[in-house]
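Allow me, if you will, to draw on your knowledge of protein folds for a short while. A protein sequence and the structure tokens that stand for its backbone fold form the material at issue. I would ask you to consider whether the tokens describe a fold that such a sequence might reasonably adopt. Thank you for your consideration; the sequence and its tokens are set out here:
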Amino acid sequence: MTQNEQQPRQGRPEDDVRDWLNKSGFPLEMRTVKKIREFRPLAVGQSVYYHDPVTGTLREMDVKAVWANMVIDVKTFVSLTVECKSTTAPWILFKGEERPIHKDDQRVLFLQSTFTNYAIQGDGAGIVKYIGTPLPALMAKSWQGCYAIKQKATTEKNAKDHAFEATRQVVSSMYAAHGQEYSPPDPSISTYAFALVVTTSPLFIAQLDKNNEIAVTATDREIVRIPLPHGGKTVHVHIVTESALHDFMVDFHELTRGLLKSGNLTIF
């Protein structure tokens, strides 16, 4: 066989691995961690394992980041649990009529979080009223969150609803992990835990317009209310496209600084 007749050289193994990785969710997780590190958490972990009390098995959360400070005599932590979904099908968030909560003719602004705190015994879940000023941007909108999320159906047989799955997974892992870390509640520790889903899918809000027709609008950030694993209370899960992650983290970091400052919160 002459040189011109030689078979084409096959690609390097490294290229094959890179192609496989680019089709997986790992690059999105890595980019998400890199972005979160810019906001100087005390600690950030990737592929963090926790014990699932329901199944009795080890499960994995994609990313977990923690910020901390001493607030008076309490060790206060702000935790962000993140689920990453590298998907393409549109995600649809369903929104009903917004009804701001009022008390004594003044708007009551609530911080929706899963947390373990000495003031809330038992299931470790509750609502905190934010009384500091100025109000963090993440709390400034008068929304109560969307009531459901669904991935637009595809032609793929038995395709998963990654939108639905991601929100349930992030709430489950956040709740289970924090319940194990701070159980029973410790009066010297206060933890505020938030859930975030980062996706490469486009996001759309679906709601009725004034004529009772379906109106669909594109967005890059929203909130959906998801029940805790044991039922009852719900928490807000932030849904953010990767392109909007930086802006979200700017707002989240502002909120974190407020939570870690004395005098900004009261238990409702």
The chain is about 25% helix and 40% strand. The mean pLDDT is 81. Helices lie at 13-22, 26-37, 137-140, 162-181, 245-259.
